[in-house]
């Protein structure tokens, strides 16, 4: 019996090592220990030579950014990375999930979803098989649902961020919803974005149903952060408390009364606040908001 991994797994591990070398070299030692363990497991028949223990754990923490359409998910990611990676705008801009990973090259690269099948950073071995599991027959259309982008931002090194299409009642498709569930399951941190311009339940019913109602009873509910973005838009009428209260009531109506709630705005794209006193107060509060969670 052969005691060494077959070629596909050797290639995969060598890609994994290259990525770790670029992003988190400390973990290289762990891979070599897994390889030793694999050899033992091949010998006693616990593992097939097409498998490795090293591929069964997610090496890169996954942060997903979900929520209502036009809430500012993509702008937030751009701001966090310090890189204009994602398109933004007031219309529903994104129609697929974008898996954002670290890239060596200074230029951002866009790769089709199928590229994820071969990327050892992503916690699925064959992403298209995973899509097939959640939406039968859709796996071969992986490019319709997913794309991959690389950014040279150091902030991305050692982690993966997923930007998502907003929840828009008209646009909702089953496969997208099921893929959302799947991504939520795999994520280590889930940021659920809401829009302070529309804090009332009607505008965010699907987000409430799907990302609040369905998640409060999960055993890993502590990985969800609920974020009311664009709170700068409450500066004009200087009523952020009323806006936040309306939002909290909508969440509470779905049963969410405890959790981590933040109200933030993105200073890159916010409307300038004319009143000096109000501006200072908003800026001070924003600094207190823990946007640095990632
Ligand atoms: N005033 C203000 N505008 C914001 C803020 N964040 C984002 N925007 C604007 O809101 C609009 C939508 O932002 P996006 O980042 O595209 O929102 P998104 O959630 O990614 O939208 P979809 O991908 O279409 O669901 C853009 O015009 C942004 O400039 C904010 O904190 N304050
Ligand atoms: Mg977007």
Features:
294 residues, 2 domains, Rossmann fold, 9 helices, 15% strand, binds guanosine-5'-triphosphate, alpha/beta
Neighbour order of strands in the largest sheet: 3-4-2-5-1-6-7-8
| Overall pLDDT confidence | 86
**CATH class label of the largest domain:** Alpha Beta
Tally of separate helices: 9
Give the end-to-end Cα distance, rounded to a whole number of Å. Answer: 46 Å
Largest sheet: 8 strands, mixed
The percentage helix is 25-40%
Number of strands: 8
Any idea what the radius of gyration is?
A: 21 Å
Unreliably modeled segments: 289-294
The number of domains = 2
The secondary-structure element order is HHEHEEHHEEHEHEHEH
CATH superfamily of the largest domain: P-loop containing nucleotide triphosphate hydrolases
From the coordinates shown, what is the CATH architecture of the largest domain?
Answer: 3-Layer(aba) Sandwich
- Measured by DSSP, the beta-strand proportion falls in 5-15%
CATH topology of the largest domain: Rossmann fold
Apparent shape: elongated
